[in-house]
Amino acid sequence: MDDLNDLALFAAVVRHQGFTAAARATGIEKTRLSRRVAALEKRLGVLLLQRSTRSVTLTEAGSLFYERCQFIIEGAQSAYESILELKSEPTGTIRISCPVLLAQNYLAPILPGYMAAYPKVTVILDATDRHVNLIEERFDIALRAQYQIEDSNNYVARELGQARRIMVASPNYLNLSGRPEIPEALHTLQIISRLSDMQDRLAHWPLRRESEHQILQLEPRLATGDLRVQLEAAIHGIGVALMPEPIVSAALKSGLLEQVLPPWHASGHIIHMLYPKPKGMLPSVRSLIDYLQAQMPATIIERSVLTPQTGVS
Predict the structure, then answer these.
(1) Strand boundaries in the chain, DSSP class E
(2) Which one of 84, 169, 262, 303 is separated from 65 by 20 to 30 angstroms, measured CA to CA?
(3) Has UniProt tagged this entry with the keyword 4Fe-4S (predicted)?
């Protein structure tokens, strides 16, 4: 495609009714304007302007060409203005990925507040337990809950809080099977385990109470990587599950679950936010990042069962 700048220069000459006036308006030398328009006419093979010592007028071809140029120039100007609008205030669409239960427990209570504060922003939330690739899948932000923060040169990682794992079971199950008083008694109970805790067909639960540490190797009745399945299984009396505090807090408060062996717990997850490095970041994305950093830590603490601790156990 030919240089679109020549179209803009030609249109400026027509709009300002001459090369001298166009040079003053655009700040481009008159001789350069004349050369560029002449080069455009040569490429097209037609005369666009009739030149005289006093003025320039459009030829028939020039009039038709100018009419079409206006559409192109106005479209380009609109494109530039749309970017300037995006950069001037939070507006546009933000795509965020978050595990399902984190979305339900952490984002659901606070996201409406963000939407009310920034009415020009549209949020697309992909609540999925799948590990997404932010760059390849064009996500602006991802929330993660893992044992450690990911180390990557491509992303910025911000810790939002921590969630230890505690043991829970339904009161009915404990009434039937008995409430364990020491960790070793878990060997006599049915266990619900996360797949990431499994080694050689056994669940490895690294439990601690203050300075005491124990690693129990238990044979699970159910092993799954889905936290929702674990939660429902525990509520329905399948056995004892070791789960993040915020995931079970509502069920504990409602009496659907009961904490087993308090204050024993296991090392938990660091809840953190990932986003690409902020060079060229739009105000909309920055506004949501700042909002989540301000709001989510308190939400995580509110959903905790145990007294929050500093550092990762």
Answers:
(1) 49-51, 56-58, 92-98, 121-127, 141-146, 155-169, 191-194, 198-199, 202-209, 212-218, 222-224, 240-244, 258-260, 265-276
(2) 84
(3) no
Question: What distances in angstroms separate CA 229 from CA 51, 195, 233, one per listed residue?
Answer: 80, 12, 6
Phi–psi pair at 130, nearest 5 degrees: -75, 140
In DSSP terms, which residues pair with 108 in a beta bridge? none
Tell me how far apart the alpha carbons of residues 226 and 101 are, in angstroms, rounded to a whole number. 10
DSSP tag of 3: -
Residue 185 lies in a domain: yes
Residue 25 maps to a domain: yes
Beta pairing class for 222-224 and 191-194: parallel
Token pair of 12 as six digits: 């400026």
pLDDT-based confidence at 179, cuts 50/70/90? very high
Q: Is the pLDDT of residue 306 over 60?
A: no
The reply to whether 134 and 180 lie within a common domain is no
- pLDDT value at residue 111: 95
In terms of domains, do 103 and 174 share one?
no
On whether both 235 and 118 belong to a single domain, the answer is no
Domain count along the chain = 3
Q: Please give the model's pTM, rounded to 2 decimal places.
A: 0.59
Q: What is the mean pLDDT of the segment spanning 165-175? A: 96
The size of the chain, in residues, is 313
Question: Considering the domain boundaries, does residue 81 fall inside one?
Answer: yes
CA distance 286 to 41: 47
Tokens of 219: 């044979």
- Over residues 154-161, the mean pLDDT reads 88
Question: What is the Cα–Cα distance from 25 to 30, expressed in whole angstroms?
Answer: 11
Q: Which of the listed residues 88, 117, 141 is the one where a domain comes to its end?
A: 88
Identify whether residues 17 and 61 lie together within a single domain: yes
Is residue 149 in a domain? yes
| Domain, as residue range, for 188 | 164-268
Structure token pair of residue 267: 């090392």
